[in-house]
């Protein structure tokens, strides 16, 4: 069964915490890069 990682609403994004940590590990601990990606997703959802 597929797992929901993200739910996008008009003014917010609900993100699975495990997915965030997977992304940070995948970026070799570069949490600032992951933060920038998530902020970009939120900005695009707010448009």
Distance between the termini: 31 Å
- Helix fraction, binned, reads 55-70%
Rg measurement, Å: 11 Å
Q: Strand fraction band?
A: 5-15%
- Provide the number of structural domains: 1
- Please give the order of strands in the largest beta sheet: 1-2
- Report the count of strand segments: 2
Question: By helix and strand content, what is the structural category?
Answer: alpha+beta
Which term fits the overall shape? flat
- Taken in chain order, the helices and strands follow as EEHH
The parts where pLDDT drops under 50 for at least 5 residues are: none
Q: How many helical stretches?
A: 2
* Mean of pLDDT: 86
Quick one: biggest sheet? Answer: 2 strands, antiparallel
């Amino acid at each position: 069964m597929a797992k929901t990682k993200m739910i996008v609403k008009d003014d917010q994004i609900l993100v699975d915490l495990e997915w965030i940590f997977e992304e940070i590990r995948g970026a070799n601990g570069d949490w600032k890069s992951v933060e920038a990606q998530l902020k970009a997703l939120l900005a695009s959802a707010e448009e």
